[in-house]
Amino acid sequence: MLKTIQDKQQAIKQHDNMYALQGYKKRFQKYINAIHDNISLEQREILRHELKVDHMLKDIDPLIDGSLEGAQRVRMQNPPTFIPPLKSANIELLWHPSLSEVSVDDFQQLLKDILDDKIQLDALCLEGSVMQDPNGTGRFHMLANATGFW
Fold first, then answer.
1. Is it the case that residue 93 has pLDDT exceeding 70?
2. 3-class DSSP state for residue 93?
3. How many other CB atoms sit within 10 Å of the CB of residue 10?
4. Is residue 134 within 8 Å of residue 128, measured between CB atoms?
């Protein structure tokens, strides 16, 4: 539950950012489709101006940053409710694709430490989407920029 006026304002900003990004996606798609349709350079520049492509490119980073900031704030104010029972049972959650804040390198090091018996792994839980989706490939939660480990 949102606790302060500032939290409510942040939630509205985050919501507005997502709608802006959704609109930008449509405009970028129109521009990219036109390029793939081999429109003339002159037509491309006209379309670039009409769609405000340069403005969108400048605006994307602040929109994403604002959305991430809001999501982090909500996440910190509303921690997952399953963590306290784990701690009370003396269970350490080593990593979770949506909750952990470690880098790809740190995660790969964690996996290496487990394989090298430096860290004990008592249970491995996989949620269904990891094993099934998208389209039965099991390729959700792939590590971005992961190189050299797999």
1. yes
2. coil
3. 19
4. no
